[in-house]
C-alpha cells in the first residue's frame, strides 16, 4: 500500500467541521393517543478540524451525539446547519464520490455478507468500489497477513468469532485504500489478544499510510494506546479537544503513590500528599496529577523505612467522569 498524496482538502485539514448541528423532531407519547412533538439536539454546534494523518479519539457518554456526527461525516445524515468537509468533499451532497475515499467500521454490525465466505465479500467489494486489480490484490494480501485472515478466507462470515469477524470487517473497510477511516467501537467484545492485534494493525496503518482516523470507543485503552488527541462530547457539544494528557489536568485528577514500608506504621506525614488507605506496611498516598512525585518520595524516604514504591497514573475514565461532575455542579 502506498502513502496517500498530499492533502486535497482544506489546506492540510482532512476533516473540517464548522458549527455542525443536527436536530431530530420526535413525537413522544404523552397520553393514550396524545403525542407531543419535541426536538432533540443531537449535535449542537460542534467545530473541529483533523489534519491529514492524525488519529483522533471521539468519546463521550451514551447519547452524546457521536454516531450522529459520524453519520454526517459519511453523508448518511444531512446536517440541520453548519458545514462539513471530508477530503474536500461535502458528504451529504456527494456521498458516492466520498464513499471511495473513506472506510467505515461499525463494531456492532458487519458490512460483510453473512452467508458468504469472507473472500467472496471482498471480491464483491472489489467490483463495487471498482478498485484496480493490482491495488486490490496488494491491499488484500497485506490485510490478510497483518490481520491474520489467511485461514479464514473460505469460512462463511456467520461462522466467524466476533474477533475474527471484526478483523474481517477492518480489512473490508481498507481494500479500496481509503484516506479517512471512521472506527466506531472497533474492539467491542474482543478478548485481550484480539484487541492487541487490532490496535497494532491500526497503529501500523496510520504510521505507514498516513490514514486519517476518527475513533469512537468506550474502551479508553483504545484511546490511550492509539490517540494523542482526544475530543470529548456530551449533549451534542464539544467539551474538550486536546492532548490526552491534558484531560488529567482538567479533571484535577490525582496520581496514587503506593509505598511499602518495612513495618506497619501510622499514616505517613508527607507535605503535598494525602494518605488514602493503610493496609499493614503498605500505604496509598494521593498527589495532584500535575505535581511531581519526587518531593513526596524524598520526604517519605528520609523519614520512614521505605522498602518499595510505585506510582499509578489516574484512570482516564475517572477523569472524564469528574469532568462531567464538575460541569454539572452549580
Ligand atoms: N434518528 C433519530 N431520531 C431521533 N433521535 C435520534 C436519532 N438518532 C439519534 N437520536 C438522538 O440523538 C442523541 C444522540 O444520539 P447518538 O446516537 O448520536 O449518540 P452516541 O453518542 O453515538 O451514543 P452511544 O454511545 O450510545 O452510541 C440521542 O439523544 C439519541 O436519542
UniProtKB/TrEMBL annotation:
> Where does the record say this protein resides?
Cell membrane
Q: Which PROSITE patterns match?
A: ABC_TRANSPORTER_2
ATP-binding found in the keyword field:
yes
Task: Please verify whether the record's keywords include Transport.
Answer: yes
A Pfam family that the UniProt record links to this protein: ABC_tran
Alphabetized, the UniProt keywords read:
Antibiotic resistance, ATP-binding, Nucleotide-binding, Transport
Quote the InterPro entries the UniProt record gives: AAA+_ATPase (IPR003593), ABC_transporter-like_ATP-bd (IPR003439), ABC_transporter_ATP-binding (IPR050763), P-loop_NTPase (IPR027417)
One Gene Ontology biological process:
response to antibiotic
* Single GO MF annotation: ATP hydrolysis activity
**SUPFAM superfamilies attached to this UniProt entry:** P-loop containing nucleoside triphosphate hydrolases
Any one GO cellular component localisation term in the record: plasma membrane
Domain annotation ABC transporter: ranges = 15-260
The membrane topology of this protein is: Peripheral membrane protein
- The name on file for this protein is ATP-binding cassette domain-containing protein
Amino acid at each position: 500500500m502506498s502513502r496517500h498524496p498530499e492533502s486535497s482538502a482544506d489546506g492540510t485539514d482532512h476533516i473540517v467541521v464548522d458549527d455542525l448541528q443536527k436536530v431530530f423532531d420526535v413525537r413522544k407519547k404523552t397520553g393514550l393517543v396524545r403525542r407531543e412533538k419535541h426536538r432533540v439536539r443531537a449535535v449542537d454546534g460542534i467545530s473541529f478540524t483533523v489534519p491529514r494523518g492524525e488519529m483522533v479519539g471521539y468519546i463521550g457518554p451514551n447519547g452524546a451525539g457521536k454516531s450522529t456526527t459520524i453519520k454526517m461525516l459519511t453523508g448518511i445524515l444531512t446536517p440541520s446547519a453548519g458545514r462539513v468537509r471530508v477530503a474536500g468533499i461535502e458528504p451529504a451532497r456527494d456521498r458516492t464520490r466520498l464513499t471511495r475515499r473513506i472506510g467505515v467500521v461499525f463494531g456492532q454490525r458487519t458490512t460483510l455478507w453473512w452467508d458468504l465466505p469472507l473472500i467472496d465479500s471482498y471480491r464483491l467489494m472489489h467490483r463495487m468500489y471498482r478498485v484496480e486489480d493490482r491495488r486490490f490484490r496488494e491491499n488484500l494480501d497485506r490485510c490478510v497477513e497483518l490481520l491474520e485472515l489467511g485461514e479464514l478466507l473460505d469460512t462463511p462470515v456467520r461462522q466467524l468469532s466476533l474477533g475474527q469477524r471484526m478483523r474481517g470487517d477492518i480489512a473490508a473497510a481498507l481494500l479500496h485504500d481509503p484516506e479517512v477511516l471512521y472506527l466506531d467501537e472497533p474492539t467491542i467484545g474482543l478478548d485481550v489478544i484480539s484487541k492487541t492485534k487490532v490496535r497494532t494493525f491500526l497503529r501500523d496503518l496510520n504510521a505507514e499510510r498516513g490514514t486519517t482516523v476518527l475513533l469512537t470507543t468506550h474502551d479508553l485503552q483504545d484511546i490511550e494506546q492509539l490517540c494523542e488527541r482526544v475530543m470529548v462530547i456530551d449533549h451534542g457539544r464539544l467539551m474538550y479537544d486536546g492532548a490526552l494528557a491534558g484531560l488529567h489536568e482538567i479533571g484535577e485528577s490525582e496520581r496514587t503513590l503506593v509505598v511499602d514500608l518495612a513495618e506497619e506504621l501510622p499514616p505517613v506525614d508527607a507535605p503535598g500528599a494525602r494518605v488514602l488507605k493503610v493496609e499493614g506496611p503498605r500505604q496509598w498516598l494521593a498527589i495532584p496529577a500535575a505535581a511531581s512525585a519526587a518531593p513526596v518520595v524524598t520526604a517519605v524516604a528520609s523519614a520512614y523505612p521505605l522498602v518499595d514504591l510505585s506510582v499509578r497514573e489516574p484512570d482516564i475514565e475517572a477523569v472524564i467522569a469528574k469532568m462531567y461532575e464538575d460541569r454539572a455542579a452549580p
